[in-house]
Amino acid sequence: MKAIVIDQYGEKNVLTEREVEKPSIQEDQVLVEIHATSINPIDWKVRAGYLKDMLPFEFPIILGWDAAGIIVEKGSNVTNFEIGERVFTRPATTNQGTYAEYVPVDENLLAKMPASMSFEEAAAIPLAGLTAWQCLVDFAGVKKDDKVLIHAGAGGVGNFAIQIAKSLGAYVTTTASEKNEEFVKSLGADRVINYKTEDFSEMLEDYDFVLDSMGGEVQSNSYKVLKPKGKLVSIAQPPNEEEAKQYDVEAAFLWLDPKGEQLQKLADMYDAGELKAIVGETFAFTEESLQEAHALSETHHARGKIVITLK
């Protein structure tokens, strides 16, 4: 099968197209023929070697942890899915990722695609959507009338976080550039702070929850807007324990735990009109296009998700 792999850590030019052996599956897995995948920051962070201590994969590594496609094989223990079904998934974090024509996936990590959902939309949801869900629902327990601040609302995780928070009945503030103000409002944001000209930490107070996707100074200033016993979760860097204690805030770093049942809940939200999958730019499945897509993701200014189409 065709795959785009890396044989060493480095810049975007280490992404190389080649033929590799089609993967085999275990009894509790299916083989998905991939129609679309997407780019996440973890992709280029692994490629650059930033996560080699946390994820000590053997080379060659096939990057990519989002997939939408069709089941072409199923293991003997698989009971809830059939060959020919359209599915989407955030597969397990291994060196056998989704920049490939086929990927093996554990049954418990699969979700069924709604009939009206395109493969491109489905590929945009898993990693970013599940991350947003686990931040807001599992960690924060966001509920009706909570005041929530979501940083970088136009980004991959941010756009899902706004929509999920609104579905839970929260009042949602987000940071965005002026050009993305109308976009994040269309997702449900109640208030938009222009991070280029305004200081959110001087404008907001008494918030219940902050989702930090930036780290650094943004994370430190986020404590100032929270009420005592408020919560902050970061997907950028582990919070400083002393800082959190100083502000009497519960703070944590979230590393995604993929779950098919939660992904199915996001599919149900999509079906109910409560969740839109925002496909930003799409790229072809070629070495050059993947390199270009990585470069775009590394700017941190992509709107929605960067999707790669294979079919």
Highest-level CATH class of the largest domain: Alpha Beta
Q: What series of H and E elements makes up the topology?
A: EEEHEEEEEHHEHEHEHEHEHEHEHE
Average pLDDT for all residues: 97
Relative strand content: 25-35%
Outline type: globular
Helix content: 25-40%
Largest sheet: 7 strands, mixed
Number of discrete domains: 2
Using the CA coordinates, give the radius of gyration.
19 Å
Please count the beta strands (DSSP E, at least 2 residues each): 16
CATH 2nd-level architecture of the largest domain: Alpha-Beta Complex
InterPro entries: ADH-like_N, ER, GroES-like_sf, NAD(P)-bd_dom_sf, Quin_OxRdtase/zeta-crystal_CS, YIM1/Zinc_Alcohol_DH_Fams
Protein name: NADPH:quinone reductase
Keywords: Oxidoreductase
Pfam families: ADH_N, ADH_zinc_N_2
Write the layout of secondary structure elements.
Layout: E1 2-6, E2 16-19, E3 29-39, H1 41-48, E4 61-62, E5 67-74, E6 86-89, E7 102-106, E8 110-112, H2 119-124, H3 126-139, E9 147-150, H4 156-167, E10 171-176, H5 181-186, E11 191-194, H6 200-203, E12 207-212, H7 216-222, E13 226-234, H8 241-246, E14 250-253, H9 260-271, E15 279-284, H10 287-298, E16 305-309
Parallel strand pairs: 9-10, 9-12, 10-11, 12-13, 13-14, 15-16
Antiparallel strand pairs: 1-2, 1-4, 3-5, 3-7, 3-16, 5-6, 6-8
